[in-house]
Structures are given as structure tokens and as C-alpha cells.
Specification:
The structure holds two protein chains of two kinds. By secondary structure, chain A is mainly alpha-helical. Chain A is built from six helices and no strands. Chain B contains nine helices and 17 strands. Classes of the chains: A mainly alpha, B alpha+beta.
Chain lengths: 135, 403
């Protein structure tokens, strides 16, 4: 099963657009939304209206989560080399899952143009975090 | 909405204070005082009626492993009640809570007793009960259910730390979502309805690939390893909650496509417990019978692989259940309407409501298959349960006793 899934996704690796279209659930008519996803992943957060981070603080958070995923995956691989069934190994992969979920959560919010700092930045527009991220 | 409790106190021209106080917003007291003017040995009777609006919150538990608040189920559910659920304004931007007019959704990760560092030190995953404070979870859910606001902790998923608490007010409908809503017996007893989202391993793998493959750090191997490593704790602590759920939504790969490995088409089963108060399971054609149904034919043309329904009674972990199953996908609006018109006990308020809700969120994942359909239907059933629960409390007759 794994190999077939790889085959169908490898071609779409550069943008998760087709990956999402192929998922069990999108009525293929929603092309507008699909463009938004592409913007979010390829532009890496630029452009507030197209599914990217609107505020600098959010953009930084996105970058941080991406980095954390990379680091924690590396760490988990290292820790599990010794004993795959150790507690340390379980915890390491659980951390990977936690951070992956958080990143996906953020991505989804941005896709729906709900920057998590929106409310905070309305009240505190002059903070560094609330600089509007321009294209 | 008012919930009124009735006390009678017999006394001679005096009014005694009720022994219970009701905590909550909007309290009103009505006093009826009548005395017999004739001199007699009969005592006068005072009836005191205390009405508290919004005294009781309806609590729904949702067990899911997809993280909090972003789950599509949550969004569909809050949509059924009207409005979109949003994070609390002006608070911690990393709050997991979602609030709409009628509902508040709490993420149970907020009850972690150990933060990320603490869990690493102790060698426990977030799935492990030892990482969670069930005493606090119970106290606060109980308080909210009784109409008392609480200062609820916040678990920050970005930093992995426990942030200062946020004030959480009792809503009309409280949804507690996370890994352990039904783990602790005391919390379980507070739930008016519970749902377990049961994703099979193959589908879980496919979904996590879709979710994570675009991330630089991930590969097929890392995604697989992460699922495998979490599986023992998942099977030990999370999975057993299924037996307590009033409704289980089970998501499996399709049976319509031989040797399908892509996990695009899904087979979804809605397993509904029988005998749950205010919850009448959805059925096809006739309750308690067994039926298989393929809607595609002369009236309806479907594209490959089509749609297949079945309905039957069954037992699930020792409970009597009814199972409604859908395999396949919807391609067009008229397929959805056609199917909706043949389902019974779906608790819609008007013909086509299910279809309307599905269309409203056509961009949500699962909108063309059983996951979206059953999540929407469960949302409507919860609305129905809520309305029945509230009506049952107000409906108690209020009568002063005769003196």
C-alpha cells in the first residue's frame, strides 16, 4: 500500500494542491480554495490575502514550527536507533506528531484567513509581532 | 430558557429561605405567599420558585486524535448551531478554545499535567494518562456544567508549555475535545453525549501523509515511524474509550474498489448506541432490520465507484447498536438530496437541511463522502438532544400547593 501512495504523491510533492484534491473529500469544483493552499505552501507565508501569514509574528511562528519539525524528526531517528520500543523513542515521535499537528493547524487557519494574531494585533498594532507582512 | 426549581415551605406567615442556592447567571425569585384569612388551625403555605436561566450546560465529549479545534467535525458541529466558532478575542493567541454563540469547544490538552519537557523527563507521551490532570478536568467540567465560570489552563502547542489560565464562561453547549474525554469515569458521567472518531490505520496513514508530506522535515518513513511509535499508547489508553461512546464514526478504506490502496474513497460506519436518552438512531427504511441499498440506478446516475449504503442492528463491545454505513462518494448535489430523502430520524428541521449543511462547507474535507455526511447528521442529532434536554427541564409544571 505504501508504495502506491508514494507513487500517486511523488508527482505532487512540490505543491500539496493535487495531494489535497486527491484526498477523499474535496469536491473537485473548489479550485479557488486550492489556489490558496498552493500559495500557503510555495510562498511560505507571504501575502495576507492568499492563505499566508498576515503578521510578522505569525510568519515567525510558521518558520519556527517548520524548523522544529525538522529537528525533532532528526532527534527521533537518533533516539530510536538504540531501542525502537524505548520510552524515549515513543516520546520523541510523539513530539514530532505534536509539532506536525500544530503546524497543520496553523496552515489551516491561514488558509481560512484567520491569522491567530488578528485579535491581538488589533489591540496592539505597534508591536514588532504585528508588522504586516508584505509581499 | 429558564430552569426553575420549586420548594414548598410550610410556616405560619413566614417565609424561610431555600436551602439550596443556585449558582449561575440571571437569577430570579418569585414568591407566592397565601394565607387563609379564616382563623383555623391550618398553616399557610409559602411556595418559593427559583428560576435560573442558563443554569445547566449540555456537555458533549469528542474523542479524536487530530489535534484540537481544527477538526472538521468541530466546525460542522458549531455550524449546525449557527455561527462560526472562533478563538477568544483579546486573549492568548495560542489558546485552543473556540467560542461561538451557543457553543464553547475546549481542548483537553489544556489539562496536561506535564508540559513537553516534563513528559520527556518522565518518558511519557501525551497519550498517557499520567500526563493529564483528570481531577482538574473533572472539577472544571463539572463547574461549567453547573453554570460556574472557571480559570482554565492553556497548553501551548507551539512552545510546549503551560500558559497562564484563561477565564472560561459556561456556554449553552460545552464540547470537550481531545484524546481522553471518556477516560475518567467521573468526567464520563458528566457527558450528555459522546462521540468517538475511529480512523483505521490505513486511512490514518493516508491522511497523515497528506498532512505532512509537504513539510521539509518529513518523509514517508518518518510519518510511518511516528504512527508506529504512538500506537502502543494509543491502543492502551485511547482506543478503549470506544466502548463508552454513544456514537462512533469509523473510517475505513473502501470495499468498492478491489485492491484500492490510495485511500481516496472511504467507507464510513456510523455506530449508534441504542437506548441513549434523547438520541434516536438514524435508520434506513425500517428500524432494527437489515438492509443494503445502492441508490444509483434508474433515478440516479453515479460515477465510478458509486455509492453503497447498509443498515443493520449489531452489538459493539457488549452494547446494542444500530450501524449505518456508507461506502463511496457523492459527485453531485442531487445524489446527496436523494440519499437524504431516504434516511429516517435524521433530526432535520426542514427537507434538505443535511444537504444544505454539506454544501455550506463544500470545501471541508469529507464533504463528498460518509465522513461529512455522518458528522453533519451527528451534529443535527446533538442539536435535537440539546433541545429535548432543555425542554425537559422547563416542562416541569410549576404549581403552588394549595393551603
Amino acid at each position: 500500500m505504501a508504495s502506491l501512495i508514494t507513487a500517486s504523491l511523488i508527482q505532487t510533492r512540490s505543491g500539496s494542491v493535487d495531494g489535497l484534491k486527491a484526498s477523499g473529500g474535496w469536491m473537485g469544483k473548489e479550485k479557488a480554495k486550492v489556489v490558496g493552499v498552493k500559495a500557503a505552501t510555495t510562498m511560505g507565508g507571504g501575502g495576507g490575502g492568499r492563505g499566508g501569514a498576515k503578521y510578522k509574528g505569525t510568519q515567525m511562528r510558521e518558520k519556527k514550527l517548520t524548523k522544529m519539525i525538522e529537528e525533532k524528526v532528526k532527534e527521533a531517528k537518533q533516539v530510536c536507533e538504540g531501542d525502537e520500543r524505548s520510552d524515549e523513542c515513543k516520546v520523541a515521535w510523539d513530539e514530532v506528531e505534536e509539532v506536525s499537528q500544530a503546524k497543520a493547524h496553523l496552515r489551516l487557519k491561514l488558509l481560512h484567513k484567520q491569522d491567530p494574531l488578528e485579535s491581538f494585533c488589533q489591540d496592539n498594532p505597534d508591536t514588532d509581532e504585528c508588522l504586516i507582512y508584505e509581499d | 430558557m429558564a430552569i426553575c426549581t420549586f420548594y414548598t415551605v410550610q410556616s405560619l406567615n413566614s417565609i424561610s429561605t431555600p436551602t439550596n442556592t443556585h449558582l449561575g447567571f440571571h437569577q430570579k425569585q418569585l414568591l407566592f405567599y397565601s394565607t387563609s384569612k379564616k382563623s383555623s388551625r391550618r398553616q399557610s403555605t409559602t411556595a418559593t420558585i427559583t428560576c435560573s436561566a442558563e443554569n445547566k450546560t449540555v456537555v458533549i465529549g469528542l474523542a479524536a486524535d487530530s489535534g484540537c479545534g481544527k477538526s472538521t467535525f468541530m466546525r460542522r458541529l458549531t455550524s449546525v448551531f449557527g455561527g462560526a466558532a472562533e478563538p477568544p478575542k483579546g486573549g492568548n493567541p495560542d489558546s485552543n478554545t473556540l467560542i461561538s454563540d451557543m457553543t464553547t469547544v475546549i481542548c483537553l490538552d489544556d489539562y496536561h499535567s506535564l508540559d513537553r519537557t516534563g513528559r520527556k523527563k518522565k518518558g511519557v507521551t501525551a497519550l498517557d494518562p499520567r500526563a493529564n490532570n483528570f481531577d482538574l478536568m473533572y472539577e472544571q467540567v463539572k463547574a461549567l456544567k453547573s453554570g460556574i465560570a472557571v480559570e482554565k489552563p492553556i497548553y501551548n502547542h507551539v512552545t510546549g508549555l503551560l500558559d497562564p489560565p484563561e477565564l472560561t464562561k459556561p456556554p449553552k453547549i460545552l464540547v470537550i475535545e481531545g484524546l481522553h474525554p471518556m477516560y475518567d469515569e467521573r468526567v464520563r458521567d458528566l457527558l450528555d453525549f459522546s462521540i468517538y472518531l475511529d480512523i483505521s490505520n490505513e486511512v490514518k496513514f493516508a491522511w497523515k501523509i497528506q498532512r505532512d508530506m509537504a513539510e521539509r522535515g518529513h518523509s514517508l518513513e518518518s510519518i510511518k515511524a511516528s504512527i508506529e511509535a504512538r500506537k502502543p499508547d494509543f491502543d492502551a489508553y485511547i482506543d478503549p474509550q470506544k466502548q463508552y461512546a454513544d456514537a462512533v464514526i469509523e473510517v475505513l478504506p473502501t470495499q468498492l474498489i478491489p485492491d484500492d490502496n490510495e485511500g481516496k474513497v472511504l467507507r464510513v460506519r456510523l455506530i449508534m448506541k441504542e437506548g441513549v436518552k434523547y438520541f434516536n438512531p438514524v435508520y434506513l427504511f425500517d428500524e432494527g432490520s437489515t438492509i443494503g441499498w445502492i441508490p444509483c440506478g434508474r433515478k440516479l446516475t453515479c460515477s465510478y465507484p458509486g455509492i453503497k449504503f447498509s443498515y443493520s442492528p449489531d452489538t459493539y463491545y457488549g452494547n446494542e447498536v444500530s450501524v449505518l454505513e456508507m461506502d463511496g462518494q457523492f459527485d453531485r448535489l442531487d445524489e446527496l438530496i436523494y440519499v437524504e430523502s431516504h434516511l429516517s430520524n435524521i433530526s432535520t428541521k426542514f427537507y434538505g437541511e443535511v444537504t444544505q449543511q454539506m454544501l455550506k462547507h463544500a470545501d471541508f474535507p469529507g464533504s463528498n463522502n460518509g465522513t461529512g455526511l455522518f458528522q453533519t447528521i451527528v451534529g443535527l442529532k446533538i442539536r435535537d438532544l440539546y433541545e429535548q434536554l432543555i425542554a425537559s427541564k422547563v416542562g416541569a409544571p410549576l404549581e403552588a400547593t394549595r393551603s
